[in-house]
Specification:
binds adenosine-5'-triphosphate, 13 helices, 7-stranded mixed β-sheet, alpha+beta, about 30% helix, about 30% strand, 5-stranded mixed β-sheet
Length: about 450
């Protein structure tokens, strides 16, 4: 079982480089360990993952508002949140080969997975994962700032601002998408674990008595989101944490996990965090962070349900889930079977030939579709090879313009998964694609 799936991992990583999804960063300088750049196709995939999340979490709801908080923040924030004291991983060094490991991620804490030495590890040291830097020209105490290791604290710091300006009352949520930074001891598995990554987080504030019910609600809603966007259910599971895995303030945490080539691993954590975060900041900042219900005269600190997902990690899981190979006419076809909302390009416009006669009508078709869909446009190579290229980047539909188009003003829609073709008048093209795509 392990063998073929690792083969899948290598195939996806190669495809990512070959087709412009993901490049190792600073590659012309030999690369910079475990940082990656999203190329022309990858940036569309990542954007679609984030847009799909935002659409479900903010646009289609009346009880969630958005936020874009700063990445740099002062030590006081992380003192209050507990990150300065507790956001650590246990680090061990192998005295034989000098490699470093995260003790809690080792299969066998006595054996070095790199050189095989037994009992060669140093005592574990707690290593804080936050990146520290300095604001302004003078280094030293007072100028220290941290790059956020999660987006969540921005929501707690702005709880009062948003309560006062948004006319929302619990149950309501604040959603944010953005970069987070963790000085991971062992980054790896491609973009699964990197030091710079993107998160999609919701803090959902509820009356304390409703916390359990909302926790259940969000566990289900978040699992369903992945399924609705094309994740096969046999590669997806919701796993409740055991009591010994829970942080001291959490009364429940579940992870949405994906079956990666190395086994089940986390895409997202949904946590029932009680009033821990608001209370910590209220105490440290000496301010009130609570809700006062003018109708009932009731005053309380809302409890928080937090679904916290990784955008970059989820994009990778969508890639792994979408990858497929089949034999067509004795040739191998590689196809990424993305959900249309996740696929980097929704439509590829492909004139059969570069000849001048087709330029005008091709531009017309492209102009008709571009305002509605992300379109690729490709006039190079034979049409069969262009279809294969679109299959490899997961484009659900190709629209081909040929010489008959000049007479009948019709084009051919070609569907990615079935490869079936349908001839439609240009005038009906946008509606027909809309019908097939569902948007
Ligand atoms: P792990 O145990 O894998 O280190 P975590 O439980 O600390 O992760 P959270 O703090 O719950 O992760 O972060 C929420 C989500 O952010 C994770 O489910 C994951 O998708 C994403 N994430 C966290 N750390 C990284 C990273 N270093 N690289 C990419 N994504 C990450």
């Amino acid at each position: 079982m392990a063998e073929p799936t690792y083969e899948l991992f290598d195939k996806v990583v190669n495809l990512c480089k070959r087709r412009g999804f993901v490049f190792p960063s600073a590659e012309i300088y030999g690369g910079f360990r475990s940082t990656y750049d999203y190329g022309p196709v990858g940036v569309l995939l990542l954007r679609n993952v984030k847009d799909a999340w935002w659409r479900s979490m903010v646009q289609l709801r009346h009880d969630v508002v958005g936020l874009d908080a700063s990445i740099l923040s002062p030590p006081a924030v992380w003192e209050a949140s507990g990150h300065l004291a507790n956001f650590t991983d246990p680090l061990v060094d192998c005295k034989e080969c000098k490699e470093r490991f995260r003790l809690d991620k080792l299969d066998d804490p006595e054996t070095c997975p790199n050189c095989g030495a037994k009992g060669s590890f140093t005592e574990a040291r707690q290593f804080n994962l936050m990146f520290k830097t300095h604001a302004g020209p003078v280094e030293g105490k007072g100028a220290e700032v941290y790059l956020r290791p999660e987006t969540a604290q921005g929501m707690f710091l702005n709880f009062k601002n948003i309560l006062e300006t948004s006319r929302k009352k619990p149950p309501f949520g604040i959603a944010q998408i953005g970069k987070s930074f963790r000085n991971e001891i062992t980054p790896g598995n491609f973009v699964f674990r990197t030091r710079e990554f993107e998160q999609m987080e919701l803090e959902f504030f509820v009356p304390p008595a409703e916390a359990d019910q909302w926790y259940e609600y969000w566990c289900k809603a978040r699992y369903d989101w992945y399924v609705e966007h094309g994740m096969p259910e046999d590669k997806l599971r919701l796993r409740a944490h055991d009591a010994d895995e829970l942080s001291h303030y959490s009364s429940g945490t579940s992870d949405v996990e994906f079956l990666f080539p190395w086994g089940w691993d986390e895409l997202e954590g949904i946590a029932n965090r009680g009033d821990y975060d608001l209370t910590q900041h209220a105490t440290h900042a000496d301010t009130k962070l609570e809700y006062f219900d003018q109708g009932s005269g009731e005053r309380y600190v809302p409890h928080v349900i937090e679904p916290a997902a990784g955008a970059t990690r989820t994009a990778m899981a969508f890639l792994m889930a979408a990858y497929d190979e089949e034999i067509v006419n004795e040739e191998q076809r590689t196809v990424l079977r993305f959900h249309p909302r996740i696929a980097p390009y929704t439509v590829a416009v492909l004139p059969l030939s570069k000849k001048d006669e087709l330029v005008g009508v091709s531009d017309e078709v492209l102009g008709l579709l571009q305002p509605h869909y992300m379109c690729d446009f490709d006039v190079t190579q034979a049409i069969g090879r262009r279809y294969r290229r679109q299959d490899e980047i997961g484009t659900p539909y190709c629209v081909t313009i040929d010489f008959d188009t000049l007479d009948d003003r019709a084009v051919t829609i070609r569907e990615r998964d079935s490869m079936e073709q349908e001839r439609v008048p240009i005038e009906a093209l946008r509606d027909r694609l809309g019908e097939r795509l569902g948007f």
